[in-house]
Amino acid sequence: xxxxxxxxxxxxxxxxxxxxxxxxxxxxxxxxxxxxxxxxxxxxxxxxxxxxxxxxxxxxxxxxxxxxxxxxxxxxxxxxxxxxxxxxxxxxxxxxxxxxxxxxxxxxxxxxxxxxxxxxxxxxxxxxxxxxxxxxxxxxxxxxxxxxxxxxxxxxxxxxxxxxxxxxxxxxxxxxxxxxxxxxxxxxxxxxxxxxxxxxxxxxxxxxxxxxxxxxxxxxxxxxxxxxxxxxxxxxxxxxxxxxxxxxxxxxxxxxxxxxxxxxxxxxxxxxxxxxxxxxxxxxxxxxxxxxxxxxxxxxxxxxxxxxxxxxxxxxxxxxxxxxxxxxxxxxxxxxxxxxxxxxxxxxxxxxxxxxxxxxxxxxxxxxxxxxxxxxxxxxxxxxxxxxxxxxxxxxxxxxxxxxxxxxxxxxxxxxxxxxxxxxxxxxxxxxxxxxxxxxxxxxxxxxxxxxxxxxxxxxxxxxxxxxxxxxxxxxxxxxxxxxxxxxxxxxxxxxxxxxxxxxxxxxxxxxxxxxxxxxxxxxx
Amino acid sequence: xxxxxxxxxxxxxxxxxxxxxxxxxxxxxxxxxxxxxxxxxxxxxxxxxxxxxxxxxxxxxxxxxxxxxxxxxxxxxxxxxxxxxxxxxxxxxxxxxxxxxxxxxxxxxxxxxxxxxxxxxxxxxxxxxxxxxxxxxxxxxxxxxxxxxxxxxxxxxxxxxxxxxxxxxxxxxxxxxxxxxxxxxxxxxxxxxxxxxxxxxxxxxxxxxxxxxxxxxxxxxxxxxxxxxxxxxxxxxxxxxxxxxxxxxxxxxxxxxxxxxxxxxxxxxxxxxxxxxxxxxxxxxxxxxxxxxxxxxxxxxxxxxxxxxxxxxxxxxxxxxxxxxxxxxxxxxxxxxxxxxxxxxxxxxxxxxxxxxxxxxxxxxxxxxxxxxxxxxxxxxxxxxxxxxxxxxxxxxxxxxxxxxxxxxxxxxxxxxxxxxxxxxxxxxxxxxxxxxxxxxxxxxxxxxxxxxxxxxxxxxxxxxxxxxxxxxxxxxxxxxxxxxxxxxxxxxxxxxxxxxxxxxxxxxxxxxxxxxxxxxxxxx
Lengths: 525, 525
Hints:
The structure is a homodimer. The first copy, chain A, is 32% helix and 20% strand.
């Protein structure tokens, strides 16, 4: 639920036609930016992989194209939806088999209080060890909304783009993950030795807020293995429609929760829906909720006023601000507004300020309001219950636990102690230094492939990187991968298999980028 | 939507098990109350109908029992649901045929901008003419929630009650209406002359707020005919489970509306749902709605603070207060609270004050909140739109038009001019004097049948009686009929056909009460 394609996190309209332009299109570079640590982004020495080695591996990637497509199709065709508890064990087992086939020597299912995770290792005898993070669950899908069934994994020609695979999980995250496995198969198939060792962790609850991911990573044997890593990354399809890439040095944390006002718990108002004429003599849990909500933010609905909520929010550093200023020059405000369907930013700020707010501002958002009669027309009832679905986005050094506690304390202080606060998922923010090896290696491979990535301090969306970047591991963590896909959480999710645009990599190009990335990780200083 | 069984209007939990006790059970008289004008409630002289005449008619009612049941079944089996535009013309035609069979000489379909109405007259050559108001539409019904299909009109034995007919419209309002027609058939079948003439109007949009009812009543020929009437009544099943009856001298008016906050109209926030991470830089139509709602009522959600909204609200008169004080003694507070599922009234007022508020207080109620993601769990979106479904209940001398105007002006004044206010239905309050003939005749027949009705100044629910009681007609209007049913707007709606409780009339007893009522109307001073 929390993590998805980063650009979607920021800008992709949710549940709109996936044919609509991806926000990444406006990321196209109009000016080359100096990014932090640019000097280190030069293509490194290729001591680990001679050009001939890479050529052999790339040939193997091409040779195994159909096999790779088939692997991804097999994976998509096994739905594993944590929110529906559907196909979870099957999805876990299938992923474990794919890891074994990909060369992982030790592959273990890790039970949790929820869906099982996976811990695996691949010892290539290399000096360096890299962490890998996968998810094997996908978001729900309503087949009625799809142009081809979400678990058919159909190959379709998409005008202007190329051949795509359509299916739930195609880009989020089975496509990029399968393509990473394709890279491993190609290296082995070409008779080459892997340049790094791997420590692998996967969860099956990413789409419901990773509630039990710490139970996987905090196991002593997993934690011990991860300690050997130089960093952790998740395979990703980073390219927009124009080939552009934005890199984020972290992500906001999130708390997803429901506020429920009910006559049952309040002791005022009705326990069930009653006829609305009774409003004259009976309290209303729906009004109670509205009044409680109104205390949480400024009157314009924009600024959280929950006492203590943002007390630990770290302001942007000078380096952060410089990074954003540079990004503001390269990213197109008009296109961003168009894609979001907005005419102005909060407080009518300018583009750079909007990016600063997006990066730095903790939020209190209403995802949904559900109370009483929600069908067409009206129904003369006084509802016994009303619910606000909320999410809070957190910046360092806020924590999910403290944010939740501050909300509860605020409600109690303002006379709303009866309102039930149910946190369904969420986690702390995550941050990685710009000079971390995986960041530098990512940028280097992107640049080698002609893509100068826009760099931002933080994704405004969320992913559970805090398990790696926070105490006790404090590892760098991020995403990597050329390639393109879209429609995460939306109908007609796709991943690009064969690209008609030379600036955008198809599946084989994405696999090549992973090979290059592994060699880069092995060699970078 | 507005009118229903009055007791349901006040106290019946909506969409709960209809087996639950009806609120009328607590209406059982524990003390005989002196009601306004009690002297006139004595059983009148029977100059119009000799005892022998009534006996012959009652025998005819019994003889035609099966025929009457069949008529009601036929009617229920023809769904006519305005909200779904389902079976409306068929339902109108069927009603017209039933009127012709019942003896109406002239029966005309009246077109409106919505569903057609009916205008009919029956000239019995009597000195007095009485108005009749019918509705031929019914509320929606979800068969999955019913123990027997809503349009099967099954006859079922209900323990402790007797034989009932189960079906949508059984009590609201086809049952009482069909039983009134049964009374007409019986009078004619017994070879007797009707004691009064009738002017009949019916609408097919009662359940959607009677938006076009004035177009029927305001037609010159209809208005002219109604001017001859001494009053207008609607057949009704007035008895609770214990046989008790509460009479109301009017009803609150109502405005049903939707407040919609959208990025589209606001010019701030997104036009469609976007990812929730954007809250940091994009305004939220959902928060905008919450802030607007919070300005409409006092911080406890109980008292409307819309400027000018209640300016014309007429306070309770001394007579009103006396009537409520008497009712408070006879009605059981503990049972009312139990049936409503509430532990305390607003402001912790006592029972008499609660009844005063119910009668006298204009309300601003939230029927439903619908915005963004409303499914299970959460979804990280910033919704482009949020809606509050509301109803306002009005007392004399407020009007629906002025209430709506004050709400719009209030929103505009507080910075919410962009919030769309869509009134879907509603109308003015209605009032009838306690000494009106139809009120006195109703009370007299109830008392003659051993029921001392509780009298209240006003129903807190609503029905479109204003078309009769307001300008220009200014006719008394109300409801009448012994008999019992329950579940209006709920699953397993029923009407009592054969009663096992001698205090509660079944279908034939209800028909007899109509016969007595007509003779009473003809003879009362």
